[in-house]
Design brief:
mainly alpha, about 210 residues, globular
């Protein structure tokens, strides 16, 4: 049976996958359609509202006969929400856009680029994407947690705690509120699940 940390890491990786967008757009990444069990395993770690969102995600996935049908539906939703809605994205997936000047490739992107550089990490497969994209930040958090939990880097868990408190939790809470205010399916529930995962991670790091 997986430990709480293993389930949490799986949940963070899965949410990063979700916010990269459907696999039709992301170079053949696996489809979230195949991860019902992972979502179910994460639910027990989450606060009530986020656990309910995870349940609703599973119900949404169950409404499709196969991964292709799901990806076709999500591609349209993803484009409307995050790529192009009457000339601009309805909701931004970049931390810089939640800072005071709301400028793409702002201070948050520069901070993330430096974090990746300092740990010798590459923005693999997404070189043209600003480094403060939500999924990059989640993947970075996963690296910190894995390095800290395995003992590879004793400082990594402290860095993860600061990164969560100062960066991820504040702006993903705002992202969640924006997405939950939209009528589009799936991504509001995913954002609610994400915030619950991050809150759980912060609590576990504080033990």
């Amino acid at each position: 049976m997986q430990s709480e940390w293993e389930r949490l890491l799986d949940g963070i990786a899965l949410t990063a996958l979700i916010f990269w967008g459907p696999s039709l757009q992301t170079g053949g990444r696996p489809s979230v359609y195949h991860f019902r069990d992972k979502i179910a395993e994460v639910r027990s770690l989450l606060p009530e509202a986020s656990a309910d969102a995870a349940r609703d995600l599973i119900r949404y996935l169950d409404g499709f006969p196969d991964a292709q049908a799901l990806e076709n539906a999500l591609e349209q939703v993803y484009v409307r929400l995050f790529v192009n809605d009457l000339g601009g994205a309805a909701v931004d997936l970049y931390e810089s856009c939640y800072e005071e000047d709301r400028r793409l490739m702002g201070a948050a992107a520069l901070r993330m680029r430096e974090r990746f550089r300092a740990r010798g990490l590459e923005l693999a497969g997404r070189e043209g994407t600003p480094p403060d994209h939500l999924s990059f930040e989640l993947e970075y958090l996963g690296v910190l947690l894995e390095q800290g939990l395995t003992g590879e880097d004793p400082t990594a868990l402290a860095e993860a705690r600061v990164f969560l408190t100062d960066e991820l939790l504040p702006w993903t809470g705002r992202l969640r509120d924006l997405l939950c205010g939209k009528s589009e399916p799936f991504y509001g529930e995913a954002a609610q699940m994400l915030v619950g995962l991050l809150e759980t991670c912060s609590r576990m790091l504080g033990k």
